[in-house]
């Protein structure tokens, strides 16, 4: 199983320092893929580039950094979240505002991401676990759509579901 969760745990980093940790993150992705065994091939360089915005978004969540989260989102994009059987839709510009940052600790590792790319559009389909204060809170599947603009991948849409009858991976 390929588990993707950026190992950076230091808080307080700004989105402006992304260029310093991106090469390390991509190297970590390659190493994790290599450790996952023959069932999951290592992501290609292009797939790692597509995964980078999602990992940045999840790092922003973990670090309580709304600017980091917004840096990889197209503001007019949309999120469709299924919560308790109900559809919640919002623009990506409001996505990070939905999260009640405070003293709680959030982490959302993703597993075995399926990445599909066609020229300047891409999608990621990946199971996830959501940990609240180091305890498994819920799990589900994330579907993320992206576009490449000016050589940079940006998230245009997020859809996910969630359930609480999860088993730790």
Description of the molecule:
The structure is a single chain. This protein has helices at 18-35, 45-63, 66-70; strands at 3-4, 73-83, 86-91, 106-107, 110-111, 114-118, 121-132, 135-149, 152-160. It is α+β, with helices and mostly antiparallel strands and 169 residues long. The strands form two sheets. Strands 2, 3, 4, 6, 7, 8 and 9 form a seven-stranded mixed sheet that branches. A hairpin with a 2-residue loop joins strand 6 and strand 7 (121-132). The radius of gyration is 15 Å and the shape is globular. Mean pLDDT is 83; it is low at 7-38.
In angstroms, what separates the terminal alpha carbons?
Answer: 9 Å
Order of helices and strands: EHHHEEEEEEEE
Strand content: 35-45%
The portion of residues assigned to helices is: 10-25%
Q: In angstroms, what is the radius of gyration?
A: 15 Å
What is the approximate shape? globular
| Strand segment count | 9
Mean pLDDT: 83
Secondary-structure content class: alpha+beta
Largest sheet: 7 strands, mixed
Count of discrete alpha- or pi-helical segments spanning 4 or more residues = 3
| Uncertain regions spanning at least 5 consecutive residues | 7-38
């Amino acid at each position: 199983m390929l588990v993707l969760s950026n190992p950076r745990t230091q808080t307080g980093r700004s989105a402006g320092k992304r260029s310093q940790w991106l090469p390390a993150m991509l190297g970590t992705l390659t190493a994790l893929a290599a450790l996952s065994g023959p069932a999951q091939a290592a992501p290609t360089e292009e797939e790692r580039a597509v995964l980078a915005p999602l990992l940045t978004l999840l790092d922003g969540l973990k670090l309580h950094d709304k600017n980091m989260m917004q840096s990889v989102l197209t503001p007019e994009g949309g999120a469709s979240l299924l919560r308790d059987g109900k559809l919640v839709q919002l623009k990506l510009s409001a996505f990070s505002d939905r999260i009640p940052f405070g003293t709680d600790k959030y982490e959302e590792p993703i597993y075995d991401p399926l990445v599909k790319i066609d020229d300047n559009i891409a999608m990621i389909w990946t199971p996830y676990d959501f940990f609240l204060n180091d305890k498994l809170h819920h799990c589900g599947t994330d579907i993320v759509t992206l576009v490449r603009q000016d050589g940079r991948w940006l998230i245009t849409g997020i859809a996910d579901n969630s359930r609480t009858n999860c088993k730790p991976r």
